[in-house]
UniProtKB/TrEMBL annotation:
The lineage of its organism: Eukaryota, Viridiplantae, Streptophyta, Embryophyta, Tracheophyta. InterPro entries: At4g02000-like, Zn_knuckle_CX2CX4HX4C. Coiled coil: none annotated. It comes from Sesamum latifolium. This is Zinc knuckle CX2CX4HX4C domain-containing protein. Residues 121-167 form the Zinc knuckle CX2CX4HX4C domain. PANTHER family: DUF4283 DOMAIN-CONTAINING PROTEIN, GLYCINE-RICH CELL WALL STRUCTURAL PROTEIN 1.8-LIKE.
Amino acid sequence: MEWIDRLGKVLVLTEDEGEGITLPTHAWIGNKKWRDRALNGGPWIFDKNLIILNYANPDKNPLEVDLNWCQFHVHIHGLPLWIMTRAMADFIGKRLGRFIESDSNQAQFMMGAKVRIRVALDVRLPLKQVLVLRSPEDQELLVSLTYERLSTFCYGCGVLDYILRDCGRRLDNQPDEEEELQYRP
């Protein structure tokens, strides 16, 4: 039980916009590397549920900490080689949420079948599966998106908060086996 006492001194549990965990900034005063790894190294998943961690200012109320954004790695598929650039990764990342970095932050051009970026996403919004990009010549380019390390999410609407059976957006009169789902594992 000693570890529970120590845990309680480090973690503050909140109930703002669902369940979340807030770590006070003084929790790891002596080890900034571990604090940053815990806060930015996720997404963290426990029992198939997403755990969102964020910095907490010791002078503020823990209920005011924003627990609606979580960082994910996103794979962008279908980009032609000539636009697999750091600038395009930044542009797409900003269309998805808050762009953090790309795997090729040092290189001007990227090579491979996909571009991998890290983006903070608003977990209250549905996940995007595709993006339509327009060229200066007004041509459309459809790129598909896949996500790494997703927690349980709704295959009906794409929100990370709940699973399909708890979704309030799906049609109640459709049996599950006949329902066409927008998302898949």
